[in-house]
Amino acid sequence: MPGQNEGADAHHSGVRHEEPHQHGHRLSPLRRPANGATADGTTGLALDDPRDVDGIPGIDGSDGVLGARDPRDDRDDRGALRDGLRAGLGAFDLRGTHGTVAAVDVAGGPAGTDLLLCPTCSAPLATGSHRPTDGPGLPAEGTDRLLAALSASESRFRAAFCDAGIGMALIDPDDRIIEVNPAFAALVGCTSGDLVRTHIHEVVDADGMPDRLFPELVRGKRERLRVEKQLKHREGRTVWSKVTISLIRDGSGNPLYTLAMVEDITEQRRLGDRLEYQALHDPLTRLPNRTLFFERLDAACLAIAGPGAGDVTVDGPVAVTGTDAVAGAQPDRGVQPGADGQVAAGGAPDERRVGVCYLDLDGFAAINETLGHHIGDQLLIAVATRLRRGFSESGARLVARMGGDEFAVLVTDSQGSHQLTALAARILEALERPFDVAGHRLVVTASVGVVERSVHETTPTDLVKDADATLYWSKADGRARWTLYDPDRGAHQLTRQLLATALRPALERGEFTIEYQPLVGLADGAVHGAEALVRWRHPRYGTLSPDRFIPLAEESGAIVPLGKWVLEESCRQAKRWLTEFPDTETFVSVNLAARQIWDSDVVADVAQALKSTGLPARLLQLEITESALLGPGGRPLQALQALADMGVRIAIDDFGTGYSNLAYLSRLPVHVLKLDGTFIEGFRDPAPTGRPELAALSSRRSDADEQIVGAMVQLAHTLGLTVTAEGIESAAQAERLRLTGCDTAQGWYFARPGEAERVAAILRENRLGPEGR
Fold first, then answer.
1. Number of CB atoms found within 10 A of residue 4's CB
2. With b meaning 16 or more CB within 10 Å and e meaning fewer, what string describes 381-393?
3. Fewer Cβ atoms within 10 Å of its own Cβ: the N or the C terminal residue of the chain?
4. pLDDT digits (tens, 9 = 90+) for 761-772
5. Which of 745, 623, 625 minimizes the C-alpha distance to 684?
6. How many whole angstroms separate alpha carbon 670 and alpha carbon 664?
C-alpha cells in the first residue's frame, strides 16, 4: 500500500532496487511439479513480475510478503484462502526462483502459519528486517488480484509460445506431439490441430538422427541436442531446419517431456549449396574444378569401412560440450564422393584400381594470340561440352577442368590400363572433329597422359603428378597422341629433377672437376692443345658425364656460374702448362653455352679469367655450337667479335649438324671448324664380308662421308680456317682423315679424357702415339 514501507528496509522491493541484495526479478511460468511442491518441499507461487502484486490488499509488492494481514480486516479465513489458492493455482510451478514467492509453514510458529520465503535467499520474510504479518488472514480481494496476476503471467507465456517466430513443439515420452505453435505448423503446411498426437517422425525425417545422442537425451543423460534435419512438408517438398531439442524434467528431476524448437534454414541452405557449387565448379565451363577432382580422387583411394565400423552415425561432425551436443548436417554436393569409395564387386578394397587421362590442347596459346581470348574461352566451353557429353559417367567417371586448357578424366573403377588407353584414344578421336566457334571453324588436337594403377600403390598427389609428367612426354614425343606412364622413364625424370635442384649447391661444395682430352696434330702427332671436359663427382650417382647434367644446367640457368668456374679453372691449368712447357704453347679449348652469351657478360668474364690467371688470350679457344650463333638481336655475333678482337680463338663445334649456314663463315670471326663425329662414322665402318651387296653399300657410304669431309676441309682451308675431327677410334680413321687434309683430331685412339697431369706427361714426351703404345 502507498507509504506502507516508508523508512523500512527495501530488501525485497519489486519497484526500487537500492540495496546490493535485492529480489523481484522477472520470471517465466513453469510447469508445476507433479507433487505440487517446490524444490524444498514447500508449495510455491510463481510470478512473472513482482509488480503483478502491487496494490493487492494484504500483499506488499515492495516487500514481497504474501499473507500479511491487513490490521483493518478482522476476518480469519486464512486456512480457507490458502486451500483455495492451492487448489485454483495448481497448474503453476510455485518453486522459488528469482521473482518467485513461496509459501511455507513457519518453523517454530503456530501450526498452519504461512509465510513467504525470499525468492533469492530463501529466508523467511517474517524474520529479520521483513515485516511480519499482522493477522492470520488474507483478504478476499487479495486472492482475486493474485489470481489475475497469475492469469496475466500465463497469458504472456502463451503469447510468447504462440507468436514466436520459430517453430516450437512439446513432445511426450512416446514421441507424440502434445502441442505446437503456429510457426511450427506453417513450416510443414498444416494446422496446429492436425499435428496434435502425431508421431514426431511423421514430421521430422528420422534418417540420420544421431543414434546415440538422442536416446541419451530422452533418458535424461543429456540436456539438449542440436541438429540440422529435413521436415516433411504436406506438399511433398523438403524444408531444411535447424532443430534444438531440450529436455523438460519433473519435480523429481526425471525426464518428462521434450521441447523442440525449429528454425527454417532452407534459404541459407540453398545459398550454401550455391556457394559450394561455385567453389567446386569452373565458372567458365561449368565442369568440376581441381578441388572437386581431388575430393573424388581422395574418396576413390580410401578404403571404405563397413557399416559396423562405428557406433555413432550423424549427419556431420559432432561436437559435445558439457551437456550440449551439436550435430551439423553437411550440404549435398553435385556428386557424392562416397560412391567412388565403394569396394569393387568381388574384390577387397585394396584390389580397386583408379586411372586418370590428363589432357592438354595443342597450340591453344596460338588461338588466344591470333583470334583473341574471347574465342579461346568459347573454344574451351565447346571442348568441355564435348568431353562431358561423351565421357562423363555418374559415379564412375568425372570430367574436370584442371586449369587453363588442361582437362582430366577420372576413372574410379578402372579395369586395367587397356581401358584407360582405349579411353584416351576415344578422347583424341572426339577432339579431332572441327569446332564451330563464333564463325570460325577450328581444328584442335590434344596430348594425353595416361596413368592407371591399384589404389594401394599410389596416393592422389602421386597419381596426378605422374599423369602431368606423362602428358608432357606426349608433347615431347610429337603431340596429338597419348602416352602411358612408364615407371623407368618416370624414375629418369625424377633423377633429372633431383640433379637440376642439386647443381648450384654441388658447385658450392666443390663436387665438379675437369678432365682434359688432347687435341693432336694429324701431320706431326704432337699435342697442340686439350679440350676441357667437366665432370660431376656426385656423392650418390658417381661420376656424371657432361651430357647428364649440362642440358639441365642450361635449362635452370646454373650453366652461367658453372661455365664461369670451368673457364677460370681451365685458364689456370693452361697457364701451368705454359709455365712448365713454354716452347709448346699448348692451348686449352673450353665449351661456351649459348645461355652464357645471353644471360651474362661473357666478354667481361673471359677478360677477368685471362687477367686473374695470366694466360695469353691466344692460348684460349672457345667452342660454340651453330645454334648458339642465332641468338636474339645479334648479341652472339657482337660478343664473338669482341672476343676475337682480344685474341681469343673461336671454334664452331659440331659443324655440319646444325643450321650449317655457310654465309656465317665469311662474316664470323671463326678460326676453327670442329666436325661432328657422325661424319667420321663412315671412316670406321669395316666392309662386310660374304655379302657383296652390303659391302658395296658400305663402300658407297664411306666414300660419300670421305668426300663430304674432304669438301668441308677444303672449304675451311680456303677461308683460312683449321679443321678438327672428333671421335677417332682407330689408326685407319686417323690416316684417312690425314689424307683429307684434316688438321687436328681427338678421340680414344689418341687418349681418353683424364687428369691434367696426364696431358703434362704427354707434353714431356713431346710426341704422342696410340694409347698404350
1. 12
2. bbbbebbbeebbe
3. C
4. 999 886 444 444
5. 745
6. 9
